[in-house]
Amino acid sequence: MNLSNLKPARGSVKKVKRIGRGQGSGHGGTSTRGNKGAGSRSGNKSRRGFEGGQMPLQRRLPKFGFKNPFRKEFEVINLGKLQAYAEKFQLTAINHEVLLEHGIITKNDRVKILGTGELKAKLDIKVNAVSESAKKAIEAAGGTVNLV
């Protein structure tokens, strides 16, 4: 064996399909594009989702849903989490500054306190919104609630 008789493995090298190079190539004439129609012409490119003139999927399906542009998003904090924060950071008051300082909320977040969990700590709370059950639990623990 020497360099002169080396060749690639059988089937590993394929012939290039030379399109539009005469009838002898086997790909002359219509150059594998078929006869007539937009697909045979140059510059043809159908849009995404085109189904050949059939009513497209995005038009067959009904419209639905509504996004309220005036919706107010709240960052929700439950009483159980408040208790955990009070113990972890030795807090007596909860407000935007304190929550921001400890990385619980971001600068423009609105905060709402919800009533899931137990609260034993006496906390003075200043937030945007509080549920009725949370307000009762906070006041039962000896704390106060003020809405901003």
Describe the protein in words.
With about 150 residues, the protein is of the alpha/beta class. It has helices at about 55-60, 80-90, 95-100, 130-140, and strands at about 75-80, 95, 110-115, 125, 130, 145. The model has no long low-confidence stretch (mean pLDDT about 95).
Q: What's a quick, concise take on this entry?
A:
By secondary structure, the protein is α/β, with parallel strands linked by helices. It is 20% helix and 15% strand. The protein has helices at 57-60, 79-89, 96-101, 132-140, and strands spanning 74-78, 93-94, 110-114, 124-127, 129-130, 144-147.
Could you give the topology of this structure?
Layout: H1 57-60, E1 74-78, H2 79-89, E2 93-94, H3 96-101, E3 110-114, E4 124-127, E5 129-130, H4 132-140, E6 144-147
Parallel strand pairs: 1-3, 2-4, 3-5, 4-6
> What is the H-and-E element order?
HEHEHEEEHE
Mean pLDDT: 93
Radius of gyration from the alpha-carbon trace, in angstroms: 35 Å
Query: How many strands in all?
Result: 6
Arrangement of strands in the largest sheet: 1-3-5
Shape: elongated
Proportion of beta-strand residues: 5-15%
Sketch the major β-sheet. Answer: 3 strands, parallel
Could you name the key traits of this structure?
148 residues, alpha/beta, 3-stranded parallel sheet, 6 strands, 20% helix, elongated
